[in-house]
Amino acid sequence: AFHSTMGVDDPPAALPGPDASPSLFASSAAFPPPVFTQHFEARLAQGGAPGSGAEESDNFMWVRHKGVDYPSSSSSSSSSSSSSSTTRGTDGGVPGVDDDVALLCLADMPPPAIVPRFTEAAPVSSCTWIVNFLARPAPPASSGGWFLLRSKAEGAWAGYSSQDMAIYGAENTPIAVGRQCVAIFDKAPTQSQSRL
User: Fold this and answer.
1) pTM, whole model, 2 decimals?
2) What is the DSSP letter of 74?
3) What is the rounded CA–CA span in Å between residue 119 and residue 122?
């Protein structure tokens, strides 16, 4: 690591912790959570829930892997802590999985930042995605495996959305940043578009 005065914006100081934040994927008939989310815990600290029709697209969420018995975690669910299928994690990672890969999975888990603006489910697809690791991917030992993730849509036009992302570890230190372009299929194509 090099010493530099440059840095990523700090997250808001008044964000609630994971225990005080609601589930990001509250079950809804109009906007059911994707099946793969069963492998993650995600709590919305600030911003809009998927499909809530929110006016903003700057979201902060606490994320971690399910099924890992994190040390010093006061917020483990009873099913995770009592299940015989849970495994002991180190440094917030998943046993048998490289820490970088485990963090990359967390970075890819949240819905695109534009999705809270939706009022009904619609398909989306990543066009491009780049992630830069800035530091070793480990949360603070007392965090229970939680990472803070920010996802912000900078703009959306003509069926595409561009977003910025950051993942924070101990003492709100940025450990990864990323950019993503997302295709949004919220309207059926016209007859002329379908011929392209």
Assistant:
1) 0.80
2) S
3) 9
